[in-house]
Design a protein that fits this description.
heterodimer; A: about 425 residues; alpha/beta; D-Maltodextrin-Binding Protein, domain 2; 2 domains; ten-stranded mixed beta sheet; two-stranded antiparallel sheet; 18 helices; globular; B: about 375 residues; mainly alpha; MetI-like fold
Chain lengths: ~425, ~375
């Protein structure tokens, strides 16, 4: 009898604790998910609350620069704002949204956008911006989900062809030889290949090899993003061409060279050319300052010139108690002057057209990156696309001996599944 | 004690009640802590695994719906990327467990026996040295490993001295077993293995063995955890009485026989602990993957624990992430129970008894009456 009472007491105690715990979790000031200015037409919230800004910095330069910019805005507007640097941004964002107290303003990647947008975590504020029409349309498309322009592109990058000028000269090549099409690319890669290094190296991932798909005229989805077009003849042609480069021995995947990415293979002199974005400038000047290089536009394929563009945006949380101030902050951070200041501080490309000319004057060596925006293709931003692209990447590392059609067919099937 | 015993029954029961109340009071802090940080989160995760929670706000909010076993169905028979990823992660982790657990148990037992010997000089030094990898954080060791096993790293340098061109280790996705089969000329899968699939993965791929990248992690796990388990074995070894050993010696058992027939059976409880801890630890491998390879190359170091994390935090598929965690839980529990059954104490079988009986009989009949002379005679 006594044992039963004790057991009962134990059960009761545990139940109480559990219930207490659950109410504590459920009732932390956030039990109904339908509040907030989640709708584009709704009113923005406004309050005296300060703003918290969560960023993922590439280095100290970026962290300091963003912190200074936010502090300057804060003293002008009188709204408190604090910048914190995330060590694992997606995880910290998820935790914030789950707890109901997310950062107000944060960096957001294209592949994370759809997931957070679909669960209502994000405020679709894009159309409220006074400088809305200044953003490159292709970037606006990147951050548009279900016809809603969610967030302002922070800056962007494109892929270019990075050439080691010393190796280039050693091979007897001149400026006139900079490849303009697939044949001339294969040609110079062959001429640049020696016993010590390959002509061209790039990472085995869609984010590099996808540029060849764009050059062949291929895409990941149709224009509306409603149907996957990965197994199109154009894409198969692109992968077949890349495969021929790899089997010729004049090009190699960075993984086969033991390098982590194109910049490492290029900087250590394992490759005479690589395909990377404008972030390579900073990496080379820090880690391999002695390497002389030049940037060229990627060559044209059967479908014309093509490259990929990457971008992040300034997300604003639907649960932010002070959305009005957050939008004002983002307007300031994406303004022409501020973006040029960011570009000076940590080498990004402004996401607005009005800053383009000044940027090209400031960075003549890198102009090819910005000029590439004319023919740049965005990366897919559908919900679940990140997993499909990861799977495609894992297959692309076996491209040298794999079957291009089979690789694309399986990626096509996976992409079809997420669009249903 | 006597005071309590002489008390009248009524008062005694009241006193015990008071005692049991204060007992509960004393354990309540740990009960609350365990409840809050263990029972509640587990309950929440269980709910998330059968819900369509999207990661925003509380999982117990009104908008979150019950979807039954949908998340589990998608993992175990959905036919999509989710199922294939899960299948791959199970395959990778199963090979990891299959190799790490026996190797680390054997190595740690060997080390324990070595440093337990009285004659060994500098025992203290070796005990510390072997235990050292265990106290270092796994993240630090992983980074060290990435350097050691890089294409131009120390390991490949060593291999090059003996004329071997080392693999690209963390970039090499080829299965070790497939590579071995290729050496004897088997490169294509037999039709029966290529056409039949389990969890979306062809059987031939299940049999690929750990990838070269995963092998580097296997070596690392053995390197880091053997020290810990050595300590467990060492403690058990030092608890063993010398008399049984002595008796065996008197009976003329060789060192080898004494180890297998006398020492090892006495270590059975420790062996069970080591195997269980090893099994649990290896099925939950996460930090090495998170800091090292993030599942690459070609998803061959993807593990269920890491997949659960990326599904939830990366892809916002919280239900699926939680479901993976519970499937993993079931796997671990089932395997532990199986292992318990295999290792349980059994009565000596008739076959075994028969082995001893005639030997004893012949010994008695052919030699003198006392054990000592018998032993000497056999020597």
């Amino acid at each position: 009898m006594r044992r039963r009472t004790t057991r009962l007491a134990a059960t009761a105690a545990l139940t109480t604790i559990t219930v207490l715990g659950l109410t504590a979790c459920g009732g932390s000031g956030f039990s109904d998910t339908s509040t907030g200015g989640g709708e584009a037409g709704g009113e923005l919230t406004s309050s005296d609350d300060g703003l918290s800004v969560l960023i993922a910095a590439s280095g100290d330069a970026e962290a300091t620069s963003v912190t200074d910019a936010v502090a300057a805005w804060s003293s002008d507007s009188g709204t408190d704002a604090e910048v914190s640097v995330a060590s694992d941004l997606p995880q910290q964002l998820s935790q914030g949204f789950a707890s109901g107290e997310p950062a107000d303003v944060f960096y957001l990647s294209t592949e994370a956008l759809a997931g957070f947008a679909s669960n209502g975590s994000l405020l679709p504020y894009g159309d409220r911006l006074t400088n809305r029409d200044d953003f490159y349309p292709a970037l606006v498309d990147n951050f548009t989900v279900d016809d809603q322009f969610y967030c302002a592109p922070k800056d962007f990058s494109t892929l270019g062809l990075i050439i080691n000028t010393d190796m280039w000269a050693d091979a007897g090549l001149t400026d006139a030889d900079v490849p303009t099409d697939w044949d001339s690319l294969a040609d110079v890669a062959a001429q640049l290949t020696t016993d010590d290094h390959v002509g061209l190296a790039f990472s085995p991932e869609y984010a590099r090899i996808g540029a060849f798909m764009a050059q062949a005229g291929g895409t990941v989805t149709n224009a509306d993003g409603t149907e996957a077009t990965l197994d199109s003849p154009e894409n198969i042609e692109a992968l077949t061409y890349v495969q021929s480069l790899l089997t010729s021995g004049d090009a190699a995947l960075t993984s086969d060279l033991g390098a982590g990415w194109g910049g490492e293979a290029f900087g250590t002199g394992q490759a005479a050319m690589t395909i990377e974005g404008n972030w390579i400038g900073g990496a080379l000047s820090t880690d391999y300052p002695d390497v002389a290089y030049q940037v060229a536009e990627l060559p044209a394929g059967p479908g014309g010139q093509g490259t990929l563009q990457f971008t992040n945006c300034w997300g604003i949380a639907a649960d932010s108690p002070n959305q009005e101030a957050a939008v004002a902050l983002v307007e300031q951070l994406t303004s022409t002057d501020q973006q040029l200041a960011f570009a000076d501080d940590f080498g990004v490309m402004p996401s607005i057209e009005s800053a383009a000319e000044q940027w090209k004057t400031d960075n003549p060596d890198q102009a090819a990156f910005l000029d590439s925006v004319e023919f740049a293709q965005g990366v897919p931003n559908q919900d679940g696309s990140a997993a499909v692209i990861t799977d495609l990447n894992s297959q692309l590392s076996g491209l040298k001996t794999g079957d291009p059609a089979a690789i694309l067919e399986s990626a096509q099937a996976n992409f079809d599944a997420i669009l249903k | 004690m006597t005071v309590i015993a002489t008390r009248p029954p009524r008062r005694r029961s009241a006193a015990t009640r008071g005692e049991s109340l204060s007992g509960w009071l004393f354990v309540s802090p740990i009960l609350i802590i365990l409840g809050l940080f263990l029972a509640v989160p587990v309950g929440m995760a269980l709910w998330v695994s059968v819900s369509d929670w999207t990661g925003r706000g509380s999982p117990f909010a009104s908008g979150v719906g019950f979807v039954g076993l949908d998340n589990y169905r998608e993992l175990l028979g959905g036919g999509g990327l989710a199922e294939r990823d899960f299948g791959l992660s199970l395959r990778n982790n199963a090979w990891y467990v299959l190799l790490v657990v026996p190797i680390q148990t054997a190595v740690s037992l060997l080390l324990a026996v070595l440093v337990n010997r009285q004659v060994l000089r500098g025992r203290g030094f070796f005990r510390t040295a072997f235990y050292f990898p265990s106290v270092t954080s796994s993240v630090a060791i992983t980074v060290l490993w990435l350097f050691l096993f890089s294409q131009s790293g120390a390991v490949n340098k060593l291999l090059s001295f003996v004329g071997i061109t080392g693999p690209a280790w963390f970039n090499d996705a080829s299965g070790v077993l497939h590579n071995l089969l290729a050496l004897v000329g088997v490169r294509e899968a037999p039709a029966v293995l290529a056409d039949n699939t389990a969890l979306g993965i062809p059987l031939w791929e299940w049999l690929a063995g750990p990838s070269v990248a995963m092998s580097a992690f296997i070596l690392m796990a053995v390197f880091t955890t053997s020290g810990t388990f050595m300590l467990l074995f060492l403690a058990a070894l030092q608890n063993l009485g010398g008399d049984v050993q002595e008796a065996a010696m008197m009976d003329g058992a060789t060192g080898w026989q004494r180890f297998w027939r006398i020492t090892l059976p006495q270590l059975r409880p420790t062996l069970f602990t080591v195997l269980t801890l090893g099994l649990i630890g290896t099925w939950q491998v996460f930090d090495q993957i998170y800091t090292g390879t993030q599942g690459g190359p070609q998803k061959t170091t993807l593990t269920p624990a890491y997949l659960s994390y990326t599904s939830a935090f990366g892809d916002q598929e919280w239900g699926r992430g939680a479901a993976i965690a519970f499937v993993l839980f079931v796997i671990i529990v089932v395997l532990t129970i199986l292992q318990r059954i295999v290792l349980r104490d059994r009565a000596v079988s008739k076959r075994r008894l028969a082995m001893y009986a005639p030997a004893a009989a012949t010994a008695d009949s052919t030699t003198g009456t006392t054990g000592t002379t018998g032993t000497e005679a056999r020597r």
